[in-house]
Amino acid sequence: MFFIFGFGRRKVRDDGPVVACTCPHCHNEVSLSLLHVSTWFTLFFIPVIPYSRKQFLVCPICRWSLPVTKANEPALDEMATITRTWRDGGLDNEEYAKRIDAFWAHLQPTAA
Ligand SMILES: [Zn+2]
User: Does residue 112 form part of some domain?
Assistant: First the structure.
């Protein structure tokens, strides 16, 4: 009997736009998207156990990314909702800019 196992299979989930900003890398006006990247232990090429989960805010144009921690999830969820409301016209630009400032001010420092 033998087993074929491996490490490093990655799965990426895109939760969509979270916050509008000017990308610090490509300087385009973008909405940073929240990506969840999980890395899996595989058995017979089938992902069985995730052993690493990381989250990033990613620029959709240049793929620049900012790592964020699980502790930031409530703030990220709230900001995504605010961004959807703003895009649907339920929030004016001035109010949205205030919410963005508050979001960045409260974002937890990223863990190593
Ligand atoms: Zn960019």
Answer: no
